[in-house]
Amino acid sequence: MTFTLTKNKQIIVYGIALAVLLVLVKWVELSFIFINYPIEIYVSIIAVIFTALGIWLALKLTKPKTNTVIVEKQVPASGFVFNETQQKQLRISSRELEVLQLMAQGLSNQQIADSLFVSVPTIKTHANNLFLKLDAERRTQAIEKAKKLSLIP
Question: Terminus of the chain with fewer CB atoms < 10 Å: N or C?
Answer without folding.
Answer: N
